[in-house]
Amino acid sequence: QQQVKQSPQSLIVQKGGISIINCAYENTAFDYFPWYQQFPGKGPALLIAIRPDVSEKKEGRFTISFNKSAKQFSLHIMDSQPGDSATYFCAASKPAGNKLTFGGGTRVLVKP
Amino acid sequence: NAGVTQTPKFQVLKTGQSMTLQCAQDMNHEYMSWYRQDPGMGLRLIHYSVGAGITDQGEVPNGYNVSRSTTEDFPLRLLSAAPSQTSVYFCASSYLIRGRGLYEQYFGPGTRLTVT
Question: A97 to each of A15, A31, B30, B68, B102, how far by Cα in Å?
Fold first, then answer.
């Protein structure tokens, strides 16, 4: 079964709008939650990451919100730009763990 | 630094053929991994290595072999290709961020494999 579930599968947003991607996990041993951004023909690249000791982390226009009790976390892309059009993956790993468990991915299209 | 490099970029195999996907990194990272990416399933871990001479299985290891004779190289071997192995393969290397207990992973550009 998929240990990290991601939704939606695809998303269309107007330039300047907010993109929201949600992930839910089952394994309470996970303690590191990164988000990766992938452009067509490229490998994933780390975008932003959070640990469960904080409920929110912001880097520029990208914010992760984390709800430990609900076992959910989400990525918000504020003021979305056409250059943000990409596939986004959430992931999770265990303490000091090198093995990532990925969600299924969300394809984001930002329309100018 | 070239980062993580993968060859070839594209490959077509017939069922039953074998081949090796190459992966190299020049960042002196201890940890290297192989993932496969399939539509709607994200990336799934095939095999990983925590250092030269040490490898272990990930989530979907069947049909694949790995070895790690040097820090830099981590080849992935398909023993007898099957259509179910049609996928995009990504190699990643990572290092432990001391004091934080976290690994930052760097991915290569991928190899698109088609098995007919």
Answer: 37, 9, 13, 19, 7
Counted across chains A and B, CB pairs separated by less than 8 A come out at: 61
Residue B23 tokens read as 């992966």
Pairing of strands A45-50, A33-38: antiparallel
Q: Check residue A97 and give its pLDDT.
A: 67
* Chosen from A98, A99, A101, A102 to mutate, greatest number of chain B CBs within 10 A: A98
Interchain contact, A49 vs B102, CB within 8 Å = yes
Token look-up 């072999």 returns B65
Render pLDDT for A35-72 as a digit per residue (tens, 0 to 9).
999 999 999 999 999 988 889 999 999 999 999 999 99
- Residue contact A104–B48, C-beta within 8 A: no
pLDDT at residue A31 in the model = 87
Band (B68; pLDDT cuts 50, 70, 90): very high
Distance (Å, whole) CA B1 – CA B83: 35
